[in-house]
UniProtKB/TrEMBL annotation:
InterPro entries: IolE/XylAMocC-like, TAT_signal, Xyl_isomerase-like_sf, Xyl_isomerase-like_TIM-brl
Annotated PANTHER family: HYDROXYPYRUVATE ISOMERASE (PTHR12110), INOSOSE DEHYDRATASE (PTHR12110:SF41)
PROSITE patterns for the chain: TAT (PS51318)
Gene3D superfamilies attached to this UniProt entry: Divalent-metal-dependent TIM barrel enzymes (3.20.20.150)
Organism domain of life: Bacteria
Protein name: TIM barrel protein
UniProt feature coiled coil, ranges: none
Keywords: Membrane, Transmembrane, Transmembrane helix
Keyword Transmembrane: yes
Record domain Xylose isomerase-like TIM barrel: where: 90-342
Transmembrane segments: 27-52
Pfam families: AP_endonuc_2
Amino acid sequence: MRNRPTPAADREVPAIARKLGLNRRQLLAATTGMAAAGIALGGVPLAGSAAADALLIPRPRRGIILYTVRDAISRDPATSPYASGFRAVFEELSKIGYRQIEFAGYNQSVNAPGGNVNNVEGARLLRMWLDDNGLEAEGNHGSVPSTITDASLAAFDAACEVANILGMRHIGTGSDPTGSAYLADWQAAADRWNILGERAAGHGLKLYTHNHDIAYSFLLDSGPTDALGRPTRSSGVRRLEWFLANTDPRYVWLEMDIYWAHVAQHKHHTYTAPDGSLVEDRFDPLEVVRSAPMRFPLFHAKDGKKDPTQANGYVMSPFGEGDIDYQAFFGDMPARGYHNPMWEQDTAPGGALNPGQSLALAKLSYQNMDELRG
């Protein structure tokens, strides 16, 4: 099966699409189409223009997920001289130059201006502060229902209402669609996400999932079964690649965390084939994006320094201070200028010893975004 000749009409289809069993027509259906990209971008320069060649991340699309500065968001302004709470942090991020915000929940210190803003009235207050500082909310790492019930759909609708108040174009989660390695569970997740994605679209929103490295490991979908009747080997298809190919491109979107994708490149490169042989298959994050560029409206632009002593192969760092080749990643990507990169560094907070560290690193990372040319 793996040696079957490729039809002439499909020879120009990217390798990842061929591995997933997609022909040219199916590939076009799994993406939103490059021809539509020029319209969807609303005038944002694409590759080839002088503006695009100068700046790989256009200034209006430079963003940050607030998880990076969660210490400042949660800080009590009554006990700290540092920026504390949403309003003060928005002001600092705007001064640095950021124009896009991705939320990681809506909790802050009760002593910060606005107090508890994790409600509809709080969302209106947050929107006012965003507008005051020239910031746009792009998404949120919230909760996506794990089951479809009347109650879970009502909760999802309420989250979409808040997203609309905040002016978001996307709504999502920081978790993978499922933590399972088995094809049946990914099929169930795809069915659920198609339902929720269509519901989000009814609210004018794009539903997205955010990846970690395990989502790019190989599905267990073939070979002998275990005592519970579950497959123990793989056809060589990665979990999230299967999800991308088997969800409706009109309703389901992805946010690639570029750091975790490179960790996946380091960790997940061998699988056991149905015949028991070990197969080497190197993962290329950029090829995944190229296979369906319009399915990735958001990125986490997280950087890392290579460290072979670590299981992940990298240690997180400020943007532009690591070893991930962002010039090549953004420079060689189709639909340049369409995507919204959110800087993230899980390790940015400095704790009691350096309470100003996360905002200082936000400034450094923004400067490095500004210097990224191609």
